[in-house]
Write a structure and sequence with these properties.
about 650 residues, alpha+beta, single chain, 21 helices, 11-stranded mixed sheet, disordered N terminus, about 35% helix
Length: about 650
Amino acid sequence: MIRNLLFVCGLTLLGILSLFARTSARPRADLVYVNPSGIHTLDPARMSWTQDFRVALNIWEGLTSWNPRTLEPIAGAAEFPPRISDDGLTYTFLIHPDARWSNGDPVTSGDFVRGWRRAIEPGTGTDYTFLITDNIEGTAEYARWRRQGVAVLAALRGLEGRLRLNEDQLRVLSDDDVWNAFPADLRAVVRHPAPDSAPAEWSRFADALLGAPLDWSTIAEAFHARHAAELADRFAQVGLYAEGERTLTVRLAKPCPFFLDLTAFPTLLPCHVSIEVLRERHAKSSLTKEGLVVYDPQWTKPNYRRNSYPGLVTNGPYRLVEWAFKRGARMEANPHHRDAAQLSCRSVEMREFENISASLMSYEVGDVDFLTDLNVPYDHEIARLARSGERPDFLPCPVSATFFLNFNCLRSRGDGTPNPFADARVRRAFSLAIDREGIVERCLARGDRVAYSFVPPGTIPGYWPPDGLRRDVSAAKKLMADAGFPDGAGLPPIELLCVGTDERIVQMLARQWEETLGASIELRVQESKTFAENKANHRFLIARANWYADYNDPTTFLDCLQSANGNNDSGFHHAGYDALLRRAAGERNPAERLRTLREAERLIVEEECPILPIFHYTQLIAVKPRVSGLYPNARLWFPFRYVTVTR
């Protein structure tokens, strides 16, 4: 029935969709697929969305790559395997002699240094900086020094503009290493408070700086010059060495059993030297006036030509030839790639639809070959057709990903009022009160797996997560009473932050909490950008979340809840948890390391409960029978170099 309905609807829209397909003057691509929500960015240092990864990992190539079926590391731009020292800390990669950029230039070890350095520099590094700073020797210290320099310059530029500094900025300036580097006339005119001084002292310090008869512009420029002059020497202390054109040596800060998985990840991709013509510079340095590393954001466009820039140059099996905002992109075989002659699929078109149902209609009428997502309101019916065998082209993919809820663990809400979820007993009670099976089997009914852990069971060899919390309403009620909220008395209204596609799930959760705990749940459905901003700034009590594994190790999930991790949207700070992760990081025995990580996960899903796992995703995709070589996998990353399309 659904097939006939979709077919009829598809015919209705065929004219519109065909017009869309003809917007490019190029012939129809060998493979046409739909990437939900399009491309956010193709800057390897800044990307964090799965749909961006899918494009990037086809037009770029890391030192290693992945087996398309198993996701095990295999050869990439470097010969495989690399040479690894006996202590597991030094990796030596030899760049393949035939590795070429899409303009024909050889790929060099320096291109990888450039790409990895961008990922840790203030201005270019973002969410995944920690993949480098947590693992490569000296990078954490370098990044810390750079962040401090940028913070000092921000304060000095503020004084240059006669702005009053806040206490955080004042503390940056008063650091002894920073303060003692300033001119003697500044230190003679103004004295900084001790670190434990009262707020009034910091206020007087702010007034003194603004009132000082000093040329702040000259002081700022002098600091900028000193900081820029130290860049090369400071970076030379990082464990990343380009030895000649083809040899890259990496020294790790600690053993990293999944490092060859990381070297295929987008954050560790190389960058071609041509981007340097689009770098913003101040006073002949490589930094901006604020000390940042900044490039023209248009550098990832294939046809951008400012400052004689040649357009995006990449080193993967495909090159980007078109990218239209909110329309799609086109990739074609990179003629300089060493495997170019073996590519059966010579061109790939990525399309973007505002309405995912429209993309399914386009697939039904044959305009699209591959859908990476079937997250439509009737996905349960699609899952039934897949299970029954009626539609063998609808494929369920068990994904290494978890849908969960973040509890705000900070003492107060964004408006300063007390936060009941600062108490772990309340968080644990809300976890114990829900019926996960009901949500997964009756509400969703699409093949997702019930989650009691953050890490999906069975996805990481040698690791099995803890049991987690099963439903126990009486225990939940007792915890709420112990926390001072018997039967919900005294509990403020609880806002649950979500996006539109979550409504079925969150409505069922709200009913369960209202019925079992007496809580009053207010659903706040927001568009994705507003939702992301509010979640990142802890402006919520409960917020939906999901996490997809980036590499094959429990830490890809567990690191998200470290105190200083940029993805820690719960604001969870627990010294014991951080200590367990540090202990695991230094553990040389693989089995003991996994036991320590299991204890860390037990703490967050059974005791402290900063998150509430609901289910592990099974994502539905659609692949036309004419397409072969697209293998469902746990990360939903699809290398098109293995694809054949028969028409």
